[in-house]
Amino acid sequence: MKKFAYLIASLLILMVGLHGYAYLFSNFVLSSAINKLKSSSEFTLSSINQNNSIFSTNLNFTLKYKDFNLKFDIFSHHSVISIFNGLDIVGDICDLDHRLKMDLTQNENSVLAKFNLNIPINGGISQLKAQVSPLKIIENHNLFTISSIDISTTFDTERLYSLGVRFDKADFEFDGISSVFNGVDIEIDYLDGLEFTSFDLFKFNPNELNISIKKFKSKCSTY
């Protein structure tokens, strides 16, 4: 009976220790992200609010980048299972100034993008999946509309390994030229990884690039 009690006590201590490690890792990841953004001269952070609990962390902040004013609402869930399945972080990004105008059928308060990020606790490849809401941008009589965009990517702390972009439809009107794209699917793979320190998707040739467009139509208007 004593051996069984010792075994249960040992398992409880182990679970508490693993959970504590997941908790500390979750807070380390979010704090590191905030500090990195703060250290960059390109971003301005404000209204930072972080609430920690035993099983989750909520982080909210406002980020200004050039002409964009974005609000991030991030939720991190951590438990013993996170040791094996990785840390799951979900979030919403809102365009506070509505500079990126949402599709007219959507509510003005809809989020600009939603994302789901999985980070292995013991190192390895992280996975990010995001969905950008339909956009409608009008500037200087030029029009750009696009359906919701699905984005997926894999990376570690130093390199990007893959990037996928998919959307159903995009319309462009620019200086009398109008174009329509339907069913666009882009997949980029970097087998050796693309270093973030010299990040430029167009400068470095990927090991594999696949672009699929179901339909493309363009016309030019003369005045």
Commentary on this structure:
With 223 residues, the chain is an alpha+beta fold. It has 2 helices and 13 strands; from the N terminus they run αβββαββββββββββ. 10% of the residues are buried. The model has no long low-confidence stretch (mean pLDDT 80).
List the keywords:
223 residues, single chain, 13-stranded antiparallel beta sheet
Q: Which spans of ≥5 residues are poorly predicted at pLDDT below 50?
A: none
The major pleated sheet works out as: 13 strands, antiparallel
Radius of gyration based on Cα positions: 22 Å
How many beta-strand runs?
Answer: 13
Shape: elongated
Structural class: alpha+beta
Q: Count helical runs.
A: 2
Give the termini distance in whole angstroms. 92 Å
Roughly what is the average pLDDT, rounded to an integer?
80
Classify the helix fraction into a percent range.
10-25%
- Please indicate the percent range of residues in DSSP E strands (runs of 2 or more): over 45%
Instruction: Write the element-wise H/E pattern from the N-terminal end onward.
Output: HEEEHEEEEEEEEEE
Task: Write a concise synopsis of the structure shown.
With 223 residues, the chain is α+β, with helices and mostly antiparallel strands.
Q: What is the fold's blueprint, element by element?
A:
Elements: H1 2-39, E1 43-52, E2 56-65, E3 68-77, H2 82-85, E4 87-95, E5 101-102, E6 113-119, E7 126-132, E8 135-139, E9 142-146, E10 149-155, E11 159-174, E12 177-195, E13 208-220
Antiparallel strand pairs: 1-2, 2-3, 3-4, 4-6, 5-8, 6-7, 7-10, 8-9, 9-11, 10-11, 11-12, 12-13
